[in-house]
Amino acid sequence: MLPIIKLDAIDSTNDYLKQLAREKEVTNFTIVTAREQTKGRGQMGAKWVSEPGKNLTMSILFKEVRLEGEHLFDFNVAVTLGVMKVLFSLNIPELKIKWPNDIMAGGKKLGGILIENTFKSDGSFTAVVGLGLNLNQTDFEWLPQATSLTRITGLDYNPEDMALLFGKGIQTTVADLEQNAQLLWENYRKMLFKLDYPCAFEDSKGNRFMGIIKGVTHEGRLAVMLEDDSVVRYDIKEIKMLF
């Protein structure tokens, strides 16, 4: 069983685990969970709001990860597919990945992933993988585009059991990266939300436009075909999907 630290309330499980790893020797694959997370974050600092005690808020530590610079996003791909693998095992239908790391089910947001890396002089890095997943929450009045496992299946889920299940799923898929990176990338692309469909986007300057998602580059950029048939590759901070 993976080591797990259970907290009642914390600002951010990612911040807690990063600080803990700086201050002492922490076992690889240690999981931190919190019943309530007061300052949860998503990509680009977006706030992650979760009803206390109803959902999964967790982080897991990966030490001594070694990937070449141009393959750093491979780690994100493996982590995301590890989460998807567990959700498939729970028979959750219509699963998709909304670039870069949102988890969608039935066209609604089920959860999100935030990966924070700390690089070392020897070229390796330590990764703290944060996962926020809606488990038992049913009231999303503040976020109509959200859903939860309970809403989908009608079942209740134990957050601690889910933390261990997702932690193991992520660990297994990351371990598979060295041998099966190409297959993981192929599966990641197939699961992209709105792949090959016209979508509305907004760039960093507030300009809105239509485009078609064609894939994701190995650097993690979203490849979008524009109306003139050119393909532009956007970084995370340069574009967002409107839906």
UniProtKB/TrEMBL annotation:
Entry GO CC: cytoplasm
Keywords noted in UniProt: Ligase
Superkingdom of the source species: Bacteria
Keyword Iron: no
Entry-linked Gene3D superfamilies: Bira Bifunctional Protein, Domain 2
Record InterPro entries: aa-tRNA-synth_II/BPL/LPL (IPR045864), Biotin_CoA_COase_ligase (IPR004408), BPL_LPL_catalytic (IPR004143)
Domain BPL/LPL catalytic: 1-178
UniProt-listed Enzyme Commission number(s): 6.3.4.15
Pfam annotation, one family: BPL_LplA_LipB
Gene Ontology molecular functions: biotin--[biotin carboxyl-carrier protein] ligase activity
Name of the protein in its database record: Biotin--[acetyl-CoA-carboxylase] ligase
Source species: Flavobacterium silvisoli
